[in-house]
Amino acid sequence: MADPLATPAPGLGPAPGLGLGPGGWARAGRRAGIAGVAIGVLAAGAAAGVAVERLAMGRDVRRRARQALDAAGPYGTLRGTPGTAVADDGTELYYEVEEADDFPAALPDGTLPEPQTTTTPRRRRRRFAGRRDPAPLTVVFSHGYCLTQDSWHFQRAALRGRVRTVYWDQRSHGRSARGISQLAADEPVTIEQLGRDLKAVVDAAAREGPLLLVGHSMGGMTIMAFADQFPDAVRERVAGAAFLGTSSGDLGRVTFGLPAAGAWAVRHFVPGVLRALGSRAELAERGRQATADLFAGIIKHYSFGTEGVDPGVARFAERLLESTPIDVVAEFYPAFAAHEKGEALAPFRDLPGLVLVGDRDMVTPPEHSERIAARMPDAAFEVIEDAGHLALLERPERVNEALAALLARAGVRLRPGPGAQPGARPGAGPVRRPRGTSRRTL
What are the angstrom distances between the C-alpha of 283 and each of 275, 286, 313? Predict the structure, then answer.
């Protein structure tokens, strides 16, 4: 969940009268006009900046600038050993594994040994006296709505070669297949289904050993649904959990910083408009491409906390969101209004945890993380100043440091990272501890 076009505030149910029979599109057009007003209010700040930019730069110049950023940016280029898990409805879910010894650790002088590749299958671990070494802890990363596993770029770079990790693409996102239940049976996407998808990935990529679950936005909701349906798996295998910029429910009250009238319009009309657009995906995609500049401005406004974000990072976030088809955006949208999983946090109560959010997150505001932290008294609770919904991209040093501390609390001793001086700690951005919190913090 990273921008209001892809993630409008969850609604109170679909708008009626948006069928595609006689008169359906006329009614859709009227409601689209009302929703357009709401979206216009929501995008006003970003659009103003885009308008100023248009005075100074032509469309071709901006297009070439985006192409240059795409070519120069290393973001999203890290790869591991690929695999496929099969969900309970037959959907193929793509994941990648990085073993702790796939990448070189730093030598005592800080230099690196010769690089290794991860494109070949891993050899079976050696057995001693007929017994296998204990399975290592695996960190499983679940990404957010309209993103892919590549959104963990900075965390992946920091942890590769230091601990076993699994990154996966949620159904219909990234390299995973479109949901079979949605395509073949026209069933709605549910957060519960995503929890079962996570179970399929764990069973395929981390069958043994302890787990540490990390989820951003929709990924955090996926972890909650996993715990709700498989509490025994959490009790038996999970050593810790991190919830980044996510929510346990009550998403229908999110206002995106809009005045009351604008928030009401978004909640009531955008669900139906998205559904109508999803049924005419090709036409909707052309419209989105035609308004690429406005789309980019909205992404930046609602994903990041400041205007000073690296242009390459901002473009990377834009590219991730552009890769999500509009019919997938529409398909997943209703699931968030139904998401209520506060009770599902119970299995994490006595585990090491991390709850982290940007203080300028308008998609899953800090009070949503406060409610999660209240149910996890052993969790570190962090609010990062001047960070938005994509803190994992905007403040990666701070997020990486918090994850390293969580791993340490879970009993994991990280190997020195590639290129890092042994014992060196990444720089931390400013962090605000919310008032009134007595729980343990990092």
Answer: 13, 5, 28
Query: Can you say how many angstroms the Cα of residue 140 is from the centroid of all Cα atoms in its chain?
Result: 13
At position 161, the amino acid (one-letter code) is G
pLDDT of residue 297: 60
CA angle 41, 394, 105 (to 5 degrees): 160
User: Does residue 186 come out as left (phi exceeding 0), alpha (psi in the -120 to 50 range) or beta?
Assistant: left
Q: How many CA atoms lie within 13 A of 327 on its CB side?
A: 12
pTM (global) more than 0.90 = no
Residue 128 is inside which H or E element, if any?
strand 127-128
Tokens describing residue 307: 């205007």
Q: In the block, which residue shows the tokens 């993103």?
A: 147
- Residue 101: closest CA among 159, 164, 167, 158: 164
Task: Judge whether 364 and 217 are in contact, CB under 8 Å.
Answer: yes
pLDDT at 261: 60
pLDDT for residue 425: 35
Pairwise CA distance, residues 275 & 191, whole Å: 18
Amino acid letter, residue 12: L
Tokens standing for residue 363: 């998609």
- Give me the torsion for CA of 387, 392, 395, 399, rounded to 10°: 110
344: amino acid identity, one letter: A
